[in-house]
Amino acid sequence: MQLEKLLTKVPQDHRIVLVGDYVDRGEHSAEVLRLISARPDLTCLKGNHEEMMLWFLSDPTGQGRRWLRYGGLQTLASFDLHGVQAEMSNDELIECRDRLQKAMGNTLFQWVAELRTWEMSGNVLTVHAGADPKVPPSEQSEKTLIWGHPSFQSKARRDGVWVVHGHTIVNEASAQQGRISIDTGAFVTGVLSAVCLDGTEPRFLTSRD
């Protein structure tokens, strides 16, 4: 699994922050959730795909079909829940939700539900999707941090804060104009990326090296 490979390459004295989308991205969602939830040394943030899964669990008839179309089917399969289709009746969606809750168990469900949306260390803000370049880190909305902001990719921050993020796939991890982009589309490319920040120039790691 790409995540396991990458974790072994992070220097032992570094704190590890993961930026979300642990589900819906490939065939190992359940395995990934169980791995990282059992690692108290990891700081795990919520991505929009965890958000959609939680919406499905709380409101299967209102939110379920959307989640199933955007990767939920693969996540369900990883929990050994098969025979599910994107278009189902309300009763079938509720039954599917109940089966997923049982497969996850209360401990894992609570872990996902309590994921944070940001982490700040010095002048580095780590989030899933991005941040409003005109708003201080402490005043960002959860929606923006999880789903992104229309100005994030086009306007540089002016407050000296660097934003580490995933969500938007790039060919190669990079740092520019206050943004450190590390999502190299592992579910498609097979390459998972990370950045090491220790006060010097950013150093990038990949599961491919």
TrEMBL record:
PROSITE patterns in UniProt: SER_THR_PHOSPHATASE
Main enzyme class: hydrolase
Superkingdom classification of source: Bacteria
Entry GO CC: cytoplasm
Keyword Hydrolase: yes
EC number: 3.1.3.16
Limits of the Serine/threonine specific protein phosphatases domain: 45-50
Alphabetized UniProt keyword annotations: Hydrolase
This protein's record includes keyword Mitochondrion: no
TM ranges: none
MF-aspect GO terms: bis(5'-nucleosyl)-tetraphosphatase (symmetrical) activity; protein serine/threonine phosphatase activity
GO BP terms: RNA decapping
Protein's name in the database: Serine/threonine-protein phosphatase 2
Native organism: Ruegeria denitrificans
Gene: pphB
